[in-house]
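Suppose a colleague, Dr. K., hands you the sequence of a protein chain of 374 amino acids and asks what its three-dimensional shape might be. Before reaching for any lab equipment, you can write down a predicted structure in token form. Begin with the sequence itself:
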Amino acid sequence: MKKVFLCKETVEEETRAALIPSDIKKLAGLGYELAVQKGAGNKTGYPDSEYSSSGARIVDSLGEGYDFADIIVRVNKSDNINGIKENTLHISSFDVFNEGEAIKKYADAGIKLISLEMVPRTTLAQKMDIQSSQMSLAGYYAVILAASKLPKIFPMMMTPSGTISPARVFVIGVGVAGLQVIATAKRLGARVEAFDTRPVVAEQVKSLGARFIKIDLGDVEETDQGYAKELTPAQIEIQRNAQARICAYSDVVITTAKVFGRKAPVLLTKEMVSQMKSGSIIIDMAVKTGGNVEGSVPGKDVLLDNGVTIIDGDGLERYVSKDASAMFSGNIFAMLEHFWDAEGKTFKLDMNDEILSSCLITSDKKIINERFRS
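The predicted structure, expressed as tokens, is then:
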């Protein structure tokens, strides 16, 4: 397996490309043969000429690329798999927990499927972790978006006519996205507070200059992948009551709390939002998985009667497509380099590799990943 095909994304709002020209050049240097669908990098600012000068062949159609490919790479999954040859390896982000029918379709077609969300969060696999690379950028842009919508400035400002107090930002969920939210909001001069169910992140919050909010929830654990485990109903109620007081005086609330493979917990109820100040901004970064905020709507900004605006914060990394593509491409390159057999000049599927055993979902016309067999 050495022929890699980069697809043009079919999701209308997608601005990223799964590989950028500089990584195409490095892959060609390893020994891969590469083809790029015409226009694949247009939304990211990479014309076909840059891909061809980096060593890729430009193909006009998806079918032509499928005929060429041993390995297909794209950002998002595609329902159009007609023409993909049996035993082709398909690499993309796949939202596997919500795509059972699609997984079965790929298995039945004999397509080997790697879902990049399932790359384990280990030191060895860090370079392949799209969750970390993309969520970091999404966290950055969430703050930029909030600042553009908020009817006051973020930093404190002393003027001849008086002093403007800094904006107060409350961050719920201190994973990769949350940490970048904190860092960016602090750089813009806001007063930042943050909460996470995992007390272990308190030091990280403090190191960025923010205040960690302590809420006694009893025993709280995290998964072996570093995600927060689902709370009990009693713990959620305690958390909501404590957060309501902070939300009431905050100018911006950004929620990033996701439970891997499950519906996102509702952290802000309608009652809590009703107590917030007019003009306040809420960005819900978990809308795609059910939402952290009651009243958030996918794809829409919702202006409530009390003057609070709830913004869909899903897919914000797409607004910084140049850097998002570069980081996504770096993740893909790291995977293709890791499994490259220099002696045999091929991508080698090592089924004993801990990375592959976590993220390879289908092979030999079967769903082989234990988590998705049922």
